[in-house]
């Protein structure tokens, strides 16, 4: 009611209170005789919107009401048209970035390539462009270079960008947050039906959960039914998981999900502390060798997802060194992919009770496990 009274006061240019003697009927009649343009920004509650829309039913036909929201579900019953804001193109993005960084619409001399890198990183998101522009304003190229390298290579985002992006994430339930993190780490650009099957096996209600994430613009579904996510949202997910780990030791092995090269290698080589790990995805085409301890996977008692893969366009370049007496995997494993698995059989005893999919291309595996599963 407070918002309603503030709105009516602004439209009628007089103070409107809850006990206003003119009453709702008179107010509606006054509004109906005026052509108005109203913007309700960042509406997050469909009940709130429905209440306001009922009060504004009798507006002049030439009046316009625009509602912005982070949750598409809010708009489903009360609007005539839904317009989804798309990311900006490169040239438009560059102009906005330069306004923040240089107070003009083009880069200063010596900053053109640096500006282009910043714009590519922002991915057409106006908020990111404005925050980045302000961050680099009046700074020397020597400041820009390491800052950009840190953003590009370490999967981190500036605090101002992350805090705004996290508003939608913070509005999720605990289970929806876990689904979002799983998708960001393991399922970006994967087919929806595949993701749904794996997440359902993990105990999530994936169908409704994916709908919620899409409504809140945390993911999109492509024309070929793939789940897509903006790079900045994915980076936000990476940061959230890193922030949840042991704040005293900063031990990466205590992250719930791993995909960074150094973090995965460290977790495989030093098993202590890996009991929190729920999922690992690792590109084996990256150079270097991988050392696995006998108890590496056995210590990961919460491991649900393990994918050691080689992209279709690349060749395997990592060797995996392991002892002969490998201890068994977690009995919570739902998905297992190991390209070029060097084992002749999966560690015994292997529990496949919850396993949904297994892929062992180009492996040395002669048999999976002993007995029936």
UniProtKB/TrEMBL annotation:
Keywords: Leucine-rich repeat, Repeat
Residues in Disease resistance protein Roq1-like winged-helix domain copies: 174-243
InterPro entries the UniProt entry points to: Apaf_helical, Disease_R_plants, NB-ARC, P-loop_NTPase, WH_DNA-bd_sf, WHD_ROQ1-like
Limits of the NB-ARC domain: 23-103
Single GO BP term: defense response
GO molecular function, one term: ADP binding
One Pfam family from the record: NB-ARC
Name of the molecule in the record: Disease resistance protein
């Amino acid at each position: 009611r407070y918002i309603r009274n503030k709105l009516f006061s602004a439209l009628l240019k007089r103070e409107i209170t809850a006990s206003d003697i003119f009453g709702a009927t008179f107010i509606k009649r006054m509004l109906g005789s005026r052509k108005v343009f109203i913007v309700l920004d960042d509406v997050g509650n469909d009940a709130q919107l429905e209440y306001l829309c009922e009060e504004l039913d009798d507006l002049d036909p030439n009046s316009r009401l625009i509602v912005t929201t982070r949750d598409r579900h809010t708009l489903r019953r009360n609007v005539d048209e839904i317009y989804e804001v798309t990311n900006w193109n490169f040239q438009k993005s560059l102009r906005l970035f330069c306004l923040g960084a240089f107070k003009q619409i083009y880069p200063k001399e010596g900053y053109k390539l640096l500006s282009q890198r910043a714009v590519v990183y922002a991915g057409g998101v106006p908020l990111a462009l404005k925050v980045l522009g302000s961050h680099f304003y009046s700074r020397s190229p020597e400041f820009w270079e390491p800052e950009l390298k840190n953003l590009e290579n370490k999967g981190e985002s500036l605090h101002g960008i992350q805090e705004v992006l996290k508003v939608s994430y913070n509005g999720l339930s605990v289970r929806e947050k876990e689904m979002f993190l799983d998708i960001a780490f393991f399922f970006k650009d994967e087919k929806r039906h595949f993701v749904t099957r794996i997440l359902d096996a993990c105990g999530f209600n994936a169908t409704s959960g994916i709908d919620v994430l899409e409504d809140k613009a945390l993911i999109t579904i492509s024309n070929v039914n793939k789940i897509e996510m903006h790079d900045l949202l994915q980076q936000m997910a990476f940061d959230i998981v890193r922030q949840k780990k042991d704040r005293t030791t900063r031990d990466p092995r205590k992250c719930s999900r791993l995909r960074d090269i150094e973090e995965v290698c460290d977790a495989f080589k030093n098993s202590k502390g890996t009991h929190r790990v729920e999922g690992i995805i690792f590109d084996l085409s990256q150079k270097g060798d991988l050392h696995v301890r006998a108890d590496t996977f056995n210590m990961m008692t919460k491991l649900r997802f393990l994918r050691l893969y080689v992209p279709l366009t690349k060749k395997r370049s990592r060797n995996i060194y392991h002892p002969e007496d490998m201890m068994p995997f977690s009995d919570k494993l739902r998905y297992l992919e190991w390209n070029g698995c060097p084992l002749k059989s999966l560690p015994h005893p292997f529990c496949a009770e919850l396993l949904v999919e297994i892929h062992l291309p180009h492996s040395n595996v002669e048999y999976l496990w002993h007995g029936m599963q």
